[in-house]
Amino acid sequence: MVFDAPKQSLRLRDTPQPRTDPGQVRLRVSSCAVCRTDLHIVDGELPDPKLPLIPGHEIVGRVEEIGRDVTQFRKGDRVGIPWLGWTCGECKFCRSGRENLCDRARFTGYNIDGGYAEFVVADARFCFSIPDEFEDVAAAPLLCAGLIGFRALRKCGDPKRLGLYGFGAAAHIICQVAHFEGRKVFAFTRPGDTETQKFAKRLGAGWIGGSDETPPEKLDAAIIFAPVGALMPVALRHLEKGGMVVSAGIHMSDIPAFPYRDLWGERALCSVANLTRRDGEEFLKIAPRIPVKTETEAFPLEQANEALSRLREGKLNGAAVLVMEN
Ligand SMILES: [Zn+2]
Ligand SMILES: [Zn+2]
Fold this sequence. Notes:
Layout: E1 24-33, H1 36-42, E2 59-66, E3 78-81, E4 84-86, E5 106-107, E6 119-123, E7 128-129, H2 136-139, H3 145-155, E8 161-165, H4 169-180, E9 184-189, H5 194-202, E10 207-210, E11 219-224, H6 231-237, E12 239-247, E13 268-271, H7 277-286, E14 296-300, H8 304-312, E15 319-323
Helix pairs in contact: 3-4, 3-7
The structure holds zinc ion (2 copies).
């Protein structure tokens, strides 16, 4: 599925088989999860996407062809392709273990064609092996919702009481990880969304409520998954001294002003950006031990627009996954 300009819908189009360069693998895609970032790109909220573009950066498939320099994968291996598609390896960020901040980074389904397709090529150094415990469809949401959610969780330090604002694909995975690690999860949903609150409870949340509610205890940290800037000062008000609010999304509406006393006491506001390969390796190691259960809703590839609208309207429980007919 391709789009030619922001705010247009995706169209099915025959594209030539992508060429496999020496460092690349070519996958036959079996599934690709739908991320909120795809929606931001399609809606024109992120600058300068490659156009025309095939979106999708939570890709699971099998290796069909290997470039001559690739040693870590073989034909037939099950491989995952994440958002981070390429980094320079030379800038100060790459050289200090922060390749997620690379000045010249390229991202799958944004600067590079992604996985809303039957075939995709990727730089093998940025691909992951998928643990055997996960079926293809269940594994797809791990590759961004899981992985970047996990980076956000680690950014929080070691919180005993963790708030999650916006209970979609990422939160439903991170709730399970946090619960497994013995943290008490406070799940904040859209006010009145009792369906999602029940869902959060089932996944281990110790307290559930609307984003307009005050939790019964102070939080040590909160992660904001919803693209709503107004939630940052709201979460900040519920923090214990020394606590942190982490914004995990790539795009957010403006953050309203708030009194300095809410930040006082060494509280912090920050964002996480992208992922490092190390985040991926650590998360894919811990995920089968929990084991993380992803809640997915499958759509055939040609219904990508429908999947995106359902996400835009907040009408999904868990993650939408496009499933290719192979
Ligand atoms: Zn770099
Ligand atoms: Zn994503």
